[in-house]
Fold:
Amino acid sequence: MSIVPTQSTVLAAVVPILIGLVGCFILPSLVSCLYGQIKTLFNPIDKISKIVVRKHDDIEPGDVLNIPTDHDIIVKDVRVLPRTKVSCLQLEVVHFAFNGPMSDRTVEKESICFEINDHMLKVFKFCPAVVYSDDEVVERALKKVGEANFNSLVYRSSHMSKFCKVRNYRDKYWCSFKTLPAIEREVTEVFDLKPGDMINFRYYGLPHVGIVVGQLPIGDLVEIDFYHVKGGMTKCCTQEFDLNSNKILRHNYYDEDRFPLKETLEKAAKKEGEKVHPFRFFKSARLVRDCVLKTEK
Structure:
């Protein structure tokens, strides 16, 4: 009996592997690219640059905001509200970032929003004698930004983080495969984390480790009156928004491309109550285009 695989056997094994590669890597990239092209075709303001807003002072009547669910609104008025609790933290984390299945993994400093008390965010606690000071950890982590020596077996984010955090990690633990004693504690309060901490969190749905190198100031809680299209009609609505979530974006127009803020509000007010064709895509985006842009760019 021959143990040499036949041509048909090889083909039978190769075809499923190729299908798997296409399904896991190539197809998602193609779908994402195609969706981006289609969205640009139907959304007249998709290519407008946007910046994150975290303070109510950064929002003026007449500004355009992109809110969660990828919806665009025209601000009529904004008011800051008292905050009783903080539900999320905006941290700067150094780790091996994932920029797509076809890209190289590099160490980056990334700003990430974390939910407090969701049982997924944990901080490592080590014996003080075996770790660097917090300032040293931050300095060591920032020096690693730009590295592209990722290895899923021996040098991923957990290893990189321990090199930044633990004294003599290479000789005492990494090379000898010894276990490093540590305790993981859930983060339940804002003050449970500080720069220099090593954290375990969910990244693209998977456990991931990184070094905290900074924390952004807590964003405002605001109430906004705004114009948008809802139920096939231009309406003025009021809603609370937590700017600490880092999910509220302000359109960044050039002054020469847009109408003055006051004129934008006047145009939006005139359209209040106006019905919109039910088969139009991105109805609120088209409202923004008509009230904000001098030309249909």
